[in-house]
Amino acid sequence: MKILEIRRHSIRSAMSDHLNQTGITLARLVGQNIGPFDRVVTSTLPRAFETAIAMGFAVDEQNELMNTYGRDVEMEAPWPQPFVNYAEIITKKGAASRYAQKLVRYYQSVLEVISESRSALVINHGGVVELGVVGCLPHVDFSTWGDAVSYCEGARLYWEDGSFIKGEALRVNQ
Q: Global pTM?
């Protein structure tokens, strides 16, 4: 079994692309309790990259796919919403569903390059986290997963025999 952790970036100041000191401190604290990871990928936005570094992990790859999901998806799936709402939205097979499937394919490619029983970390953004998670786990009941992810929160997904088989929400006490 392989594990994929998907987390939202840490705290930044309003109107800034970069983490503030509170965000660096939070990312350091979270990073002390996760990993190790054989592969770390982030969006290309500074706050995601900086979160990985503050957590103590070198970044192997950055990908624009995870920067934002665009206007069409935002119209269908505005952030923030609980996981269960995103799960319902992607069943409608619109722009949000298509974007979620792109994320699923990308996450699969991340896992393909790590060995069995190893882990990878993905850091991206609110809305992107939730859509990717529900896309990876289309048959999961997300009613107990709670609200949208906050800073450094996300999900841990388990991959076996070529598919995601289960997951769990990752919450941070701030």
A: 0.96
